[in-house]
Amino acid sequence: MTKVKLLGFLLLAAVPLQAAPRAPKPGADELILRALGASASYSAVERVQVFRAGAKPKASKALIWVFPGGKTRREVMIGRKKAPAMIHVRDGREISIYWPGKKKLWRGPSPSETPAAALARLHSVYELSVYAGGRVAKRLTWRVNMRNSSGALRRSLWVDRETGLALKREIYRPDESLARRERIVKLELGAEASPSLLRLEAPSGTEAVAFNASPFFPQWAPDGFIPTDSSSSLMSFSDGADTYAIERPSGGGKPVIVGDLAEDDAVKVLASLEERK
Fold first, then answer.
1. Which of 55, 85, 119, 221 has the greatest count of CB atoms below 10 A from its CB?
2. Do 58 and 50 contact (CB within 8 A), yes or no?
3. Is the dihedral of CA 121, 125, 130, 131 positive or negative?
4. Does pLDDT of 75 surpass 90?
5. Who's near 264: CB < 8 A, 6+ residues apart?
């Protein structure tokens, strides 16, 4: 190699390659508002895992269809059964949940909360921070971590960088052990689905139940949870994979939440009990 060629090679080697510009990291509030207000229509397959201390994780699968305006249909599949174990439908006016195994169909007004109000509720109990989230369903995400006042990680949310869709959620116990994971494993944006999916008609012999009759009943519950047991002092809720309960202490004290429910959900459940008074 001649001296001129060698010099040129060395000069090129000394010039650093220009890295592709990185997307600026958004703020946590921006990501939460995008996720809560996302309006994309899509179909998806979601895997849900519930982790219990000393036991194997309990897993289920959900088939999801999302329509413009936040209307949704969700079919929960458990085990190897081909028929849904539970079907949830939100048509924009009411929520309907059909549990074939119990032959019950719950109906009630669809609860509404503005993205700004939901964000304020999160800020009331958590400190929010943002990190690169890696890929979920083959899509790049941002991860929002939510820590309580003692610094313990209680929730994480993975938000699609392009669409703002929430693609993964995790809930942690006070010791930061994982309690629940919901993860989109297959996503089809813009998927066409029949509006008939938003009509839920249960077979004859199904008991119709309203979301209200009980000694004490919240106006709001986490998505998909329905009452499974009730007495004058305890009401249990389940979504087919996980459970929690509202307990009213003897002597008429304030109700408390029993189970692995994150603080912000517990705050909203208890607040909705107060709203009924």
1. 221
2. yes
3. negative
4. yes
5. 121, 122, 124, 125, 126, 146, 155
